[in-house]
Amino acid sequence: DGGITQSPKYLFRKEGQNVTLSCEQNLNHDAMYWYRQDPGQGLRLIYYSQIVNDFQKGDIAEGYSVSREKKESFPLTVTSAQKNPTAFYLCASSPVQANEKLFFGSGTQLSVL
Amino acid sequence: SQQGEEDPQALSIQEGENATMNCSYKTSINNLQWYRQNSGRGLVHLILIRSNEREKHSGRLRVTLDTSKKSSSLLITASRAADTASYFCATEGWDSGYALNFGKGTSLLVTP
């Protein structure tokens, strides 16, 4: 099946710990995105990448880091600098640029222990 | 930066009724998209309407776009319990590589 796979579905972080959320796509899409969703809220853009080995900060990049070493993969690291990391994290991809249709993964719920 | 803003925040209707939700945005757009999210899941693309289009249909969905008022509406006809979900409008962000900006969504509850 073609699509976007996010793992794990649930993740717990201890204080001071960095955690990495995985996002893999087999749609051959160039662009990939990370969004954060808080309860009852819309999606806020964390980072995006339009091509391998290149990525840009979104609206709320502080406390997060990403890499794009392969076209298929766009992992997100939530660092200890992110003081309020509890949220639902969504990864998405699009063929060229996102003003066309976005394809989303099923999300990762991150909680702080 | 969130550009789209949906209205109402929540909507409760009975099966068979129509559901209308609205979206307002601030800057000029190339297109506007609507997405659906079931609880605890990712978003699913429903429909895209381009700035030169005024109305678009897809099954039981009807989307309108009024660029002069910077607004769009999503109509779901003959609602079903399975339509219960949150609905988001999205527009491209000119300052973020055209990554989509999403509103806070309308939470739709359809009761049998």
Explain what you see.
The complex is a heterodimer of chains A (113) and B (112). With 113 residues, chain A is an all-beta fold. Chain A contains no helices and eleven strands. The model of chain A has no long low-confidence stretch (mean pLDDT 92). The model of chain B has no long low-confidence stretch (mean pLDDT 91). The interface between A and B is medium-sized, with 31 and 28 residues.
Quaternary organisation = heterodimer
Shape of chain B: globular
Uncertain ranges of chain B:
none
Summarize the helix and strand pattern of chain B as letters. EEEEEEEEEEE
Helical amount of chain A: under 10%
Total helical segments of chain A:
0
Could you name the key traits of this structure?
heterodimer, A: 113 residues, mainly beta, seven-stranded mixed β-sheet, four-stranded antiparallel β-sheet, 11 strands, 50% strand, globular, B: 112 residues, six-stranded mixed β-sheet, five-stranded antiparallel β-sheet
What is shown here, in short?
The complex is a heterodimer of chains A (113) and B (112). Chain A has 113 residues and is mainly β.
Topology:
The complex is a heterodimer of chains A (113) and B (112).
Chain A: E1 4-7, E2 10-13, E3 19-25, E4 31-37, E5 43-51, E6 54-57, E7 64-66, E8 76-78, E9 87-94, E10 103-104, E11 108-112
Parallel strand pairs in A: 2-11
Antiparallel strand pairs in A: 1-3, 3-8, 4-5, 4-9, 5-6, 7-8, 9-10, 9-11
Chain B: E1 5-7, E2 10-14, E3 19-24, E4 31-37, E5 43-50, E6 55-58, E7 61-66, E8 71-76, E9 85-92, E10 100-102, E11 106-111
Parallel strand pairs in B: 2-11
Antiparallel strand pairs in B: 1-3, 3-8, 4-5, 4-9, 6-7, 7-8, 9-10, 9-11
